[in-house]
Amino acid sequence: MTDVLFIATAQPQLGVLAGAVQKFRALGASVRMACHFDTRNCLEELDRLELDGYQQLPYGIGNLGPLAKRRMKKVPHGRRLWLQSRRNPWMRQQGLGAQHLVALDANAVYVVWRLAQYNTTASASFGIAPALRSIEGRTDASAPTKRRALPPPALLASDVRRQAKALPHNILRTATARPVMRSAVGARLWRTALNAPGVPPTMRAALSRQVAEGMRWAGRPGGATLALTTAAGRIEDRKIRTGLLDEAVWAELKKGIAPRTLDRTVRELLAQADEQYQAGDPAAAASTMDRALVLGFHRVVHIDQLSSQLATEPETYAAPVYASTAMQKIIEPRGRKVPAAQAPLDRPLRLLITTSANDNFLKLILKRYENHPDVELRYLDLAASPAMKRISWAGRRMLENRLGGDAFYAEQVEQIMRPHLDWADTVFLDWCVAPAVMLTTIDPGDTRIVVRLHSYEAFTRWPHMVDFSRIDDLVYVADHVQDLTKSLVPQLRGEHAPRMHMLHNAMDLSGFDLPKPAEARFNIGLIGISQVAKDPLWAVEVLERLREHDERYRLLMVGGDMDPKTSRATKDYLRSFQSRIEPLEESGAVLRLGPTDDVPGKLVEIGTILSSSVREGCHVGLMEGAASSAVPVVRDWPFFAGRPHGARTLYPEGWVVDSPEQAAQRILEVTATEESWRTAGKLASEHALAVWDWPRVSRDFDELLLDSD
């Protein structure tokens, strides 16, 4: 005989319960009920249920003394009922002896959970249907012939709806309190409730949010996500469903976690944006599309990780975005009324160089053209004023304008940019991010537009929003960055694509080739360790292999540490990194030199320069190290390894290795003698100065910007 104990803190719908009791009996179960409600008005109905027993238990505080009453008023309702009944002999006997504990309403969840802490062999359920399924699962295979149908689903749904409507905020908080949610039983009970059939969508969504809040209080963020996604799976209304999925994903991103349901959520958002666009609501469609793109190209997923689907499967990853009807409208090429004019022959070229706050790679370019006899230069920082910054980074408004709404946005861009466009012959915009989208909102007239894309932008949403039919030239810093970006952005593969160029970054390398002391031969250098993508643990593996042969080898790291607040992935990586290098630092094998304004001075002490990154555009630190006569050892960056272009096509043969073992072997061979080390370093410096130094690269910029052809 299987013993089932119902716990009810409010009078249940007895018609539903009668059918359920018969079903339990057909399965060979005895059924009893603990009644934490006033039974005086329903004694006859309770008798007709043919229960094997029921017991009136305390349900109010009217019989308590003043002091006890004041204390009990401060206790959540579910816990109050448990405190009042836990010593009741009937409750103790039945609760400890039952094989199935069933909460019939939300307040009973806490009581069932506490009983389950003592009766650890019993199953615990919230609701009738899950309990029936649990008992059916334990029934002998010969039993099906005796089974009857479940009570009508409509009745069960009605009961769930009635209970949900009766749940005030404080009761939900009681049932989702930390102790309940920390236990597997409590979490399982709420998942059962979220899966209940027939609950109205808005009610199910509200319940899932309460459960998620309780899970987060209990320190179970994964449970919070599961609560929201479970409810979303039972809701047909796309707006409500998408809202829950979006909340679940965003909560994980805020904690720096790559969401498990990201692809599903982005697809739902894209579908919702399409519906809104087709319904003639560009503002709503833009807001939803903005959300989809922000989530789909979030830095936590693609930048703060050691791998990314954007790199491994770029076209597959981007395909759902471009299947969207709204996205097709957004990327629709609008072109320009007249082509860009040729560079003037009778006066200096009017060159506008612009960016938004980040001018790290512009200093040499600005210096060259501000004193160039054939150039009249202006510089515009779009982050210099709050008004310009708001307009140039207004992603949602840009999308709404592309979808046929918010004409005022284009007017504002005109007011800001038209005076500059009317003056300039050529605009050079550094970084293909939001300002590039803003600039292509309007027709540039006959002004030539040149945009430079580094590597970071390829992992963001911004290139997908740019109207490349209004850009004349797109400059990359490396061929592999061009390959990746073209794979992700179909606008760059069509007839309206701009001309494309590969120009190295502007670097003054002439001051790096300083004499190195002999002891630098055994110092391995790493410039920049502030991002997960730099993967300094790879460099540590190289060092450990080197020290197996010779303990004179040391690792010198130049640059600031990773910020653990960036993301959960960064925090976890940093923790592993710190624990790995702590004993090496104590022994002197690893030295962290911190950030510096004198990189050439630090490189004097470095004999081998490493690139341990999983991805790079060109890795300026490595190039500077090579210019200093440090021997370059470059990891075949995993994001681009095995592709037509990558580290192996950017750097000379012999510099690039596949593994820490190969890196250690190359270093051991090159540094075997001081003569071989200095010879290899000299060859590296000669290559760096011949290919990447500014006097050489500046000619390429002159050809791009000043050539009249």
Average pLDDT number: 89
Q: Assess the beta-strand content as a share of residues.
A: 5-15%
Low-confidence stretches: 140-175
Can you count the helices?
34
Shape: elongated
Strand order of the largest sheet: 7-6-8-9-10-11
Rounded Rg: 34 Å
End-to-end Cα distance: 94 Å
Classify the helix fraction into a percent range: 40-55%
Total count of strands: 17
- Biggest sheet, in brief? 6 strands, parallel
Derived structural class: alpha/beta
Your description of this structure?
This protein is α/β, with parallel strands linked by helices and 709 residues long. The protein is built from 34 helices and 17 strands. Strands 7-6-8-9-10-11 form a 6-stranded parallel β-sheet, with helices on both faces. The protein has a 6-stranded parallel β-sheet with strand order 14-13-12-15-16-17, sandwiched between helices. It has a 5-stranded parallel β-sheet with strand order 3-2-1-4-5, sandwiched between helices.
